[in-house]
């Protein structure tokens, strides 16, 4: 499947979140400290990449994550306000590549807390789901 017609390099979206107990390494099982879990940061980056392209997909299309690279540079405590921005940087048929960057909204100079790349593939939702259940 080819990517949707309205997709273009440069599409962006921003996701904002406040770190809660549910977002911590303790809750995610990825550590034992009450700071933003790396898997949660990755989920926020995915949400931003999905939001960047969602308005440009037709009702039959969706996208799925296929690869990610994330550098989690500094901890974010409970109550920290996060801003995660994703930008579509490459389109290769149905394969989309995003660059994302995460900051604490109140950090001095907008210090980066995490960054990386995400790859998604645009596909037909029904066909994808049908492959999961297989023949009856």
- Beta fraction of the residues? 35-45%
Indicate the mean pLDDT: 93
Query: How many helices does DSSP assign?
Result: 3
Share of helical residues: 10-25%
Task: Describe it.
The protein has 136 residues and is α+β, with helices and mostly antiparallel strands. It has one domain (12-133): Thiol Ester Dehydrase, Chain A (Roll), CATH 3.10.129.10. The chain has 3 helices and 5 strands; from the N terminus they run βααββββα. It has a 5-stranded antiparallel sheet. The longest helix is centred in the middle third of the chain and has 16 residues, at 38-53. The mean pLDDT is 93.
Gist of the model:
The protein has 136 residues and is of the alpha+beta class.
Layout of SSEs?
Elements: E1 12-18, H1 25-28, H2 38-53, E2 61-72, E3 81-92, E4 95-104, E5 112-124, H3 125-133
Antiparallel strand pairs: 1-3, 2-5, 3-4, 4-5
